[in-house]
Design brief:
By secondary structure, the protein is of the alpha+beta class. About 50% of the residues lie in helices and about 15% in strands.
């Protein structure tokens, strides 16, 4: 008996072959989309790392200013306190370059006798892979290929009403004025 052609048989075979071809298409699309997705994730991760560093540094600088404004001129104790606060930044080069020596630079100026105190913190961090090429091309990195991050905080040692007082900045004068002396 000769094979007879059925009207739907050719279409059914074509659909089966078409189904196999479509499943391979998803793999090819994923192969193209995955590198793009990873690059986008890297581009979002780098600003997050820099933002985390800046937030920790700004908080440490502000607390250092409060300590300087109330301490009796002990800038070294304030610097040690700030360095301990900066310990919450992971010692990984992506967060803070630590290999070959620590890159934290902490400068404390002023004391409770000054009108204003300030704390400046600077560090370096390595860009993520692939981001470093773009950062070099745009001139965003220093000579060692690292980002430089710097934060400075300033604060008055006394509120305005104290500085504007006729008794001046001397607590002893305030006590004698209160006692009537």
């Amino acid at each position: 008996m000769a094979a007879r052609w059925a009207p739907g048989s050719l279409c059914l075979g074509w659909r089966l072959r078409l189904g196999r071809d479509e499943s391979g298409q998803a793999t090819v699309e994923a192969a193209f989309a995955l590198p793009v997705l990873l690059l986008v994730m890297l581009m979002l991760l780098q600003p997050g790392i820099v933002l985390y560093d800046r937030m920790v540094m700004a908080d440490a600088a502000a607390e250092g200013c409060r300590l300087l404004a109330t301490a009796e001129g002990d800038a070294q104790a304030a610097e040690d306190f700030v360095r301990r606060r900066l310990g919450s930044v992971p010692p990984h080069d992506l967060f803070h370059v630590h290999g070959g020596g620590c890159t934290w630079q902490v400068e404390c100026q002023g004391d409770e006798g000054s009108a204003e105190v300030s704390v400046r913190i600077a560090t370096q961090l390595k860009p993520l892979p692939l981001i470093d090429y773009g950062a070099r091309a745009l001139g965003l990195v220093n000579g060692q290929g690292n980002f430089e991050v710097e934060v400075e905080a300033t604060a008055p040692t006394q509120p305005d009403w104290v500085r504007e007082s006729s008794l001046g900045m001397s607590p002893a004068a305030w006590v004698s004025a209160r006692d009537g002396g």
